[in-house]
Specification:
By secondary structure, this protein is mainly alpha-helical. It has two domains: 93 residues, Helix-hairpin-Helix base-excision DNA repair enzymes (C-terminal) (Endonuclease Iii, domain 2), CATH 1.10.1670.10; 100 residues, Endonuclease III, domain 1 (Orthogonal Bundle), CATH 1.10.340.30. It has eleven helices and no strands. Helix 2 packs antiparallel against helix 6. The protein is elongated, with a radius of gyration of 18 Å.
Length: 212
């Protein structure tokens, strides 16, 4: 498929997803707080958003802001995030990046990829979540749904998250990128899961999907 055709298909997909999910937002209940979204993004690795939302009610009650978390004991945080899995690493990352944000960035979450990637446990997926949802910058969150479906639709030919991110960034207008990613997650859960996709219900079944 040519680049021009991919851009046209991406536009059709973005418009179709917008019609299906006009009010799609991040499933993490962070209340508009950049630091809380950063924490929840880290906890969501190998864990459901629903579980993270439950865990963070107690976590943020105990440590309501970046300054409180920067002063936290690892063991105390570990107990609170235990059910999110890989709890020792996640707890250490959260405390450590909170310290860095306080000491290096004046208590404010950075607004650029370069600085975000210096924070322990923060990769491109979390960084793009912050850039898109908080700072409204062009950002592709290449999660499993995004990778799987963009390949099925022929928009990408890779399962490498960074390659998918860069490919989609060229195909979608900057102002559409963040919302597109939230919508494709909902679409992936509702209609196009990894197993047993509901192709008969899919509004994009004329794309000639490559199921894999």
């Amino acid at each position: 498929m040519t680049e021009k055709k991919k851009k046209e298909r991406a536009r059709i997909a973005a418009d179709g997803l917008k019609a299906l999910y006009p009010d799609a937002t991040c499933a993490l209940e962070y209340g508009g707080d950049p630091w809380r979204l950063l924490v929840m993004g880290r906890l969501s690795a190998q864990c459901t958003d629903a579980r993270v939302n439950v865990v963070c009610r107690d976590l943020f009650r105990e440590y309501p802001d970046v300054y409180a978390m920067a002063a936290a004991e690892y063991g105390s945080v570990e107990k609170l995030v235990f059910s999110c899995g890989v709890y020792k690493v996640k707890a250490a990352n959260i405390v450590d990046f909170s310290k860095i944000i306080v000491e290096k960035f004046g208590g404010k979450v950075p607004d650029n990829m370069e600085d975000l990637l210096t924070l322990p446990g923060v990769g491109r997926k979390i960084a793009n979540l912050i850039l898109g949802d908080i700072f409204r910058k062009p950002a592709i969150v290449a999660d499993t749904h995004c990778i799987r479906i963009s390949n099925r639709w022929g928009l990408c030919e890779s399962t490498d998250p960074k390659k998918v991110e860069f490919t989609l960034a060229k195909l979608l207008p900057g102002e559409e990128q963040s919302d597109f990613c939230h919508r494709i997650v909902l679409f992936g859960r509702d209609i196009c899961p990894a197993r047993s996709p509901k192709c008969s219900e899919c509004p994009f079944n004329n794309f000639g999907c490559k199921l894999k």
